[in-house]
Design goal:
Chain A is mainly α. Chain A has one domain: MetI-like (MetI-like fold), CATH 1.10.3720. Chain A has 14 helices and no strands. Chain A is globular and about 75 Å long. The longest helix of chain B has 35 residues. Chain B is mainly α. Chain B has a domain of 163 residues: MetI-like fold (Orthogonal Bundle). Chain B has 13 helices and no strands. The model of chain B has no long low-confidence stretch (mean pLDDT 86). Chain B is globular, with a radius of gyration of 24 Å. The chains are: A mainly alpha, B mainly alpha.
């Protein structure tokens, strides 16, 4: 009865929601003469993307972002797995105090401690390196927490059975815990990759050369320096920098949504 | 013997994480507090202990109050609005409407985009005269307006961007919660003759309370943590009308290189984040379950 009303409302909101994005896409795929001029017969072009790609070292920025994201994820997976295993299955002295100290990072994220972390990086001689962007995020409290919760749900019998067969703690971790936590690893990986692909303020602060800048910072440097504000090229560059992630999202929509959900409801 | 071994193993497994957290979370937190009690070291002059002087300066700094006020308005503007929109989105997507998967995609896509790209897209959207907003308003005879360059509209423009980016993210949590609600409740209510609004107010909304609390805390944290769009769109201007707290810290720390004052401001931000975490802890402890 109220269904047509709901449908209309939902579609109206959806259209409003995609409007800014659609406007950017329109501008990026048409010659600049059509930027603010909507003609359904306007000729399509890829020239803006080509121009943007050559106007700044985007290939290098893309490489930097890929290195950054891979490096952070690899380190996080290793470090968080080990720590989560310790918290889930080792009743060591000081465990609850240490766990509380880990959880502090959920509240005080590295995004906020800009000044002191900059000083530390400067002291370590790491300013303007990809490593400096990644280091503060490698021990992720969120990852540790998520994996600890998962490991705790794994029956101890499996653990003990493996130990009876003579497996050491690390073998048990690799053979029993990690394979059983696979969906959680995938969820965490998707969230981590999209977070660090998109991260901006900290990379902006610690980098100042083409060799270290990730895509987000590169995009900002590109669009804020005098381009004569050619919006067709800026929007093309903007879409270009998000394209890999956007494509991955469109292909694996369900996994993305489920991962964000799983990662959020902790 | 075995207990001793467990402790050693546990600590060894924890070691890499503990070292990194100590260096990049615990130490800088303490160092920030320490720096806030000292002067900024300049050249040959080492930092000097000044007690609470920086805090006194902060209380007398009109830009600090402006940033704090802006941030509170920003939070008040983004949080309720994005929660209400997220809830509406979830209720709609949860029904069997025509084009449901398109709707979900349209709502969720902004979440995936980097804030920096979102800001660029919206910067273009707001461009005076040229951007889509002015073009649409132009159809109704509204004259072109410098949206981001006017004191009154700069902050609301940033709020719109944040709502646009966040609502789809919060939607998925509501969607997950809605799918947990048993359909028999709806059927029972229909038999009793309860109206839709009544059912939502008395059944659905209370059942969604834990989700709302979760979303609320996340929204508060995001309102104070994410300023990428300020950097791209307004740089805090015009005349500090859109400066948020973290953006001000960024300016003080890395434009004016006044690290002691930046540390003082950071302590305020940490207190706000700490407060919201405490709130989460207290409310999640006693969160209400009706099922």
């Amino acid at each position: 009865m109220t269904k047509p009303l709901d449908t209309a409302g939902a579609w109206l909101l959806a259209l409003v929601w995609i409007l800014p994005f659609a406007f950017a896409v329109w501008t990026a795929v048409h010659p600049s003469a059509y930027t603010a001029h909507f003609d359904p017969l306007a000729p399509l072009t890829a020239a803006n993307f080509v121009a943007a790609w050559h106007a700044a070292p985007f290939a290098r920025y893309l490489l930097n972002t890929c290195i950054l994201v891979t490096m952070i994820l690899a380190a996080q997976l290793l470090i968080c797995t080990l720590a989560a295993y310790a918290f889930a299955r080792f009743a060591f002295a000081g465990r609850s105090v240490m766990f509380a100290l880990v959880l502090v990072q959920l509240m005080i994220m590295p995004d906020v401690l800009l000044v002191e972390n900059y000083r530390t990086m400067s002291g370590l001689g790491l300013l303007d390196t990809i490593g400096a962007i990644g280091l503060p995020y490698m021990a992720s409290a969120f990852g540790i927490f998520l994996l600890r919760q998962t490991f705790k749900t794994i029956p101890r019998e499996l653990d003990e059975a493996a130990r009876v067969e003579g497996a050491g703690p690390l073998t048990v971790l690799r053979r029993v815990y990690v394979p059983l936590a696979r969906p959680v690893y995938i969820a965490f990986a998707l969230v981590s990759v999209s977070y660090h692909w998109n991260n901006f303020l900290w990379p902006l602060i610690v980098t100042n050369s083409v060799e270290a800048r990730p895509l987000t910072v590169g995009l900002q440097v590109f669009s804020s320096t005098d381009q004569g504000i050619d919006w067709s090229i800026i929007t093309a560059a903007t879409l270009m920098t998000t394209l890999p992630l956007l494509l991955a999202f469109l292909l694996f929509q369900r996994q993305f949504v489920q991962s964000f959900m799983r990662a959020g409801i902790r | 013997m075995s207990r001793w071994k467990t402790t050693v193993n546990g600590w060894l497994l924890l070691l890499p994480a503990a070292v990194l957290l100590a260096v990049f979370t615990h130490y800088p937190t303490i160092a920030t507090f320490w720096a806030s009690l000292h002067t900024t070291p300049k050249g040959d002059f080492a930092a000097k202990y000044v007690g609470l002087e920086n805090y006194g300066d902060m209380l007398a700094d009109p830009v600090f109050w402006q940033a704090l006020r802006n941030n509170l308005w920003y939070a008040l503007g983004t949080i309720p609005l994005s929660i209400v929109i997220a809830l509406a989105m979830a209720l709609w997507v949860n029904q069997r409407l025509a084009g449901r998967s398109f709707l979900r995609l349209a709502f969720f896509t902004p979440t995936i985009l980097p804030m920096i790209a979102v800001a660029n897209i919206w910067l273009f959207f707001y461009t005076p005269g040229y951007g889509l907003l002015d073009q649409i308003l132009g159809l109704f005879g509204v004259p072109a307006h410098n949206w981001l360059g006017t004191r009154e509209t700069a902050l609301p423009c940033l709020i719109a961007v944040a709502v646009w980016k966040e609502a789809g993210f919060f939607m998925i949590f509501y969607l997950a919660a809605l799918q947990q609600i048993s359909p028999s409740l709806g059927e029972a209510a229909a038999i009793e003759g309860a109206g839709r609004w009544y059912f939502f107010r008395r059944v659905t909304f209370p059942l969604l309370m834990p989700t709302t609390l979760f979303v609320l805390v996340n929204a508060v944290i995001n309102a104070f943590r994410l300023v990428d769009h300020v950097v791209v769109m307004t740089r805090g201007g015009p005349d500090n009308a859109s400066t948020l707290l973290l953006y001000y810290i960024f300016e003080v720390g890395f434009r004016y290189w006044d690290s002691a004052y930046a540390a003082t401001l950071t302590i305020v931000l940490l207190a706000i984040l700490g407060g919201s975490a405490l709130f989460q802890f207290l409310t999640l402890e006693r969160r209400v379950h009706y099922q």
